[in-house]
From TrEMBL:
This is Membrane bound FAD containing D-sorbitol dehydrogenase. It comes from Chryseobacterium ginsengisoli. InterPro entries: FAD-SLDH_ssu (IPR024651).
Length: 147
């Protein structure tokens, strides 16, 4: 797969991070960027783990992305080289959790990370107390209510 230059971020590994995040989450790079958290998450991870550990994860990810020509090949490479490898498995799981729940090691990265967690899109729901439909919206009958 081709790793495209995504942002004008000087760090090449950012593009690898976004490409592997797309594959790990099932959400497109555009959808991930639309959360407004892509760069924040990348920088947060760099601040939480040793740079050499994160770089190793990104190098393994880069190899998997570059050597896969179909989605099946990429899925197999991720399973075999990243998720089954003790050196990269925990980081991959943490990246998935970060995107879906907005947490790193059980703590929210920031207020936006709760609101923009991918879990809400998957559930077709809104984060309680954070986004529309809003306070007391449950007291109004739905427009298409049959009752």
């Amino acid at each position: 797969m081709i790793i495209n230059k995504i942002f004008n971020v000087d760090d090449y590994y950012y593009d690898v991070f976004m490409a592997i995040s797309e594959s790990l989450t099932g959400f497109s790079v555009n959808e991930l960027q639309s959360t407004g958290l892509a760069e924040i998450y990348y920088k947060h991870i760099l601040g939480q783990i040793e740079a050499v550990t994160f770089t190793e994860f990104l190098n393994v990810s880069k190899t998997a992305l570059e050597n896969s020509y179909t989605q099946d090949q990429l899925n197999n490479a991720i399973s075999a080289d990243i998720l089954s490898n003790p050196a990269t498995q925990e980081i991959a799981q943490s990246v998935i959790t970060l995107w879906y729940l907005g947490t790193w090691e059980g703590a929210y990265v920031n207020d936006l990370s709760y609101k923009e967690g991918l879990v809400w899109n998957v559930m077709h729901a809104h984060p309680p107390g954070a986004k529309q439909p809003g306070f007391k919206s449950w007291s109004v009958k739905p427009v298409n209510s049959n009752s």
